[in-house]
Design brief:
single chain, 271 residues, alpha+beta, Arc Repressor Mutant, subunit A, Multidrug-efflux Transporter 1 Regulator Bmrr, Chain A, 2 domains, 10-stranded antiparallel β-sheet
Length: 271
């Protein structure tokens, strides 16, 4: 497996170096020193995407960032990322993001979870580790939690209650018992706030003011949380950029629930 991982890291690096160049899957296979047939099979196994699908998702995600942040003409961005015409670029963009490039640019700041990040060696190692598990699907009835809430702003966390709590972990430490749920909301990436809201439920009261939150009934995809906090972003990349894209489901609500060492993502059948 380690040989395959190193070869696919080479393939991913080759793709990243040539996002704006005319390349074919055979070129990527050659960079990894594999035959085309063997390369496609191994890439799909290790990366969890067919090579052409990964290439297109990375090109479109890079183009989306340029649409969002720059002033280049859409036609120039389309040609830069090897689309033969603005029409083919618009069709591919809409299939991936459910919006035309013009709509995306007008919308402004977007939920970054929908963009395909460059997969690192850590991404590949996690999704090919023996402990990595596919999700289970469960249905949960509506439930209400009472706890503490904070809003994340500009990478600095500020508690809504006005306390001096500076991090989610410190917020959790205010509970007399460990919180039974941790809920991350992603309410509005198009607003100035643009960061998740945290709500923690608790079994016993605290001296701090509490808020209550009712979560509607949903079906959830349940993923085991990694033991290390630093690996959580790798898992969420897998969920939003790989698993959802291939599962036939879409997000039913912009939130995540942590419960019993699992990350629960609300889903519904994609229409």
């Amino acid at each position: 497996m380690s040989t395959y991982l190193r070869a696919m890291e080479t393939a991913v690096s080759f793709i990243e170096d040539h996002l704006q160049d005319e390349i074919f899957v055979a070129d990527i296979a050659a960079a990894a020193s594999y035959s085309l047939y063997h390369f496609c099979r191994v890439f799909n196994q290790i990366v969890h995407h067919p090579p052409y699908d990964y290439l297109m998702r990375r090109r479109l995600s890079a183009a989306a960032l340029e649409l969002q942040d720059g002033n280049q003409r859409i036609i120039d961005i389309a040609f830069a990322y090897q689309f033969g015409s603005p029409e083919s670029f618009s069709r591919a963009f809409r299939r991936l993001f459910d919006q035309l490039p013009t709509q995306w640019r007008k919308q402004g700041v977007r939920d970054p979870r929908v963009l395909m990040n460059r997969l690192t060696s850590n991404h590949l190692a996690q999704r090919n580790h023996d402990a990595f598990q596919r999700p289970t699907l469960v249905k949960k009835e509506a439930f209400t939690v009472a706890g503490l809430m904070m809003i994340v702003q500009d990478d600095a966390e500020t508690a809504v209650s006005g306390s001096s709590i500076q991090s989610v972990s410190k917020l959790q430490q205010q509970f007399k018992q460990p919180p039974s749920h941790t809920i991350y909301h992603y309410p509005d990436y198009w607003a100035e706030q643009g960061k998740p809201v945290f709500v923690g439920s608790l079994a016993e009261n605290t001296e701090l003011p509490l808020v209550s939150q009712t979560i509607p009934a949903h079906e959830y995809a349940c993923f085991p949380l990694p033991e290390l906090d630093g690996e959580r972003p790798l898992l969420t990349d897998y969920i939003y950029q790989t698993w959802l894209a291939q599962s036939g489901y879409k997000l039913a609500a912009l939130l995540e629930v942590e419960q019993d060492q699992q990350l629960l993502v609300p889903i519904e059948v994609a229409g």
